[in-house]
């Protein structure tokens, strides 16, 4: 993603919150008795990746194969009985693994099993999100509904860094997690290939949530939000295999093409039984060597966050109606 792209989406995120704020001010004039208020919160939940290693075309399998965690902090301003805006920071880990995804049925998922790629990625997401409550609140926070479902839509700037685990028995020393982008595993950034992918991207969070008024000062909340991004490289996989002779180091070659490894690096399990099943079913592992590409996924890499939250309502001076 170029600096111009980042600037453009940063401007759009500010514009989004500005629209929410202006709409809130307009509704406040129509309902001058409403008292705007703020709250701060903490949340934690699960993170799920959708991409070349876990296709959104198989949503349930992708959703439950390798869920990971997320934690976040947020500040919310309620402008009207229905409309609010939120600024949040979320740290989320996502993971994908061809072996884990396909080992239960290596024949059906032969292309995944033979490819044998994996990654993990810690996302740092700064989001600006507008929310719309389906049940309006009262004049003050004390009069808010006991249960308030809501819709959310926003824009987020996401920093990421996909990593992979070195092969078992590697000559590079003990197994460890290694950053993949500098290795140019698809040749990107090397002469004769395209520009290397950026470690900063934009996502568009959209989802649903519900708040529960625990008491006068605290809300409990739960939400799920899906966030498609503008990169195909949260997983370091997006295009074809490069010419191995163009790669700069033996480690880069190992991470670029892992089809020959007999041990799944992330789990330490033998891949030989699955390869034998593919051959016995008439498959040819040598033909299942596509690395990545748009044909595997109708959209670019995405993630889904679930979050269980607690919010503290910041006391505000109550004006006389």
Write up this protein:
With 321 residues, the chain is an alpha+beta fold. The chain has one domain (3-29, 39-313): Porin (Beta Barrel). Helix content is 19%, strand content 34%. It has six helices and eleven strands. The strands form two sheets. It has an eight-stranded antiparallel beta barrel. Strands 6-7 form a two-stranded antiparallel ribbon. The protein is elongated, with a radius of gyration of 23 Å. Mean pLDDT is 88; it is low at 24-30.
Note the main sheet.
8 strands, antiparallel, barrel
Query: How would you describe the shape?
Result: elongated
| Number of DSSP helical runs | 6
CATH architecture: Beta Barrel
For the terminal residues, how far apart are their CA atoms?
A: 50 Å
Protein name: Outer membrane protein beta-barrel domain-containing protein
Organism: Fibrella aquatilis
Question: Any chance you could write out the topology, listing elements then pairs?
Answer:
Blueprint: H1 3-30, E1 37-50, H2 59-65, E2 68-78, E3 83-97, H3 98-102, H4 110-115, E4 118-133, E5 147-159, E6 163-165, E7 177-179, E8 200-203, E9 206-213, E10 218-228, H5 250-256, H6 272-280, E11 302-313
Antiparallel strand pairs: 1-2, 1-11, 2-3, 3-4, 4-5, 5-8, 5-9, 6-7, 9-10, 10-11
